[in-house]
């Protein structure tokens, strides 16, 4: 083989290797981003209002009311506004447990009875697989950016108002 043939063969092999490596890299990046994409739900037109001893606090919320939406929740979200949250709506009052796997930001988890009253507020640590539970059955869970409840004076026994809560079957019978 002549020097020119060796050079041509080398360039062709290098080009093929580059194309294969580049394709494999971008394919793996596509899979990684598809696996870790955050679920973003439409913001409900009605704000959720927390009625506290010191006044009312309003939040724009996304509503997770299907099992798929509740399972995904705020996973993979890197950030969220201080006045934004996600309301998890369950079909009935039940024991619930949440974890923070694949959730990179810390959260306040506010557990709410069927009557809209806050039963417990717990803190969620990023990426933790520890189960977070209120210790009693609830109908709703509101997730907010960590520290929002304390800064807003939101405490156990306070009331949350929103059409998703007030229109829940037996909302007065908790």
What would you note in describing this structure?
- This protein is of the alpha+beta class.
- The protein is built from four helices and seven strands; from the N terminus they run H-E-E-H-E-E-E-E-H-E-H.
- It has two domains: 1-35; 48-166, Sandwich (Jelly Rolls).
- It has helices at residues 3-35, 67-72, 148-151, 163-166, and strands at residues 48-52, 55-64, 84-94, 107-112, 118-124, 138-145, 159-161.
Layout of helices and strands, plus pairs?
Blueprint: H1 3-35, E1 48-52, E2 55-64, H2 67-72, E3 84-94, E4 107-112, E5 118-124, E6 138-145, H3 148-151, E7 159-161, H4 163-166
Parallel strand pairs: 2-3
Antiparallel strand pairs: 1-2, 1-7, 3-6, 4-5, 4-6
Organism: Mesorhizobium tianshanense
Protein name: DUF192 domain-containing protein
InterPro entries: DUF192, Saro_0823-like_sf
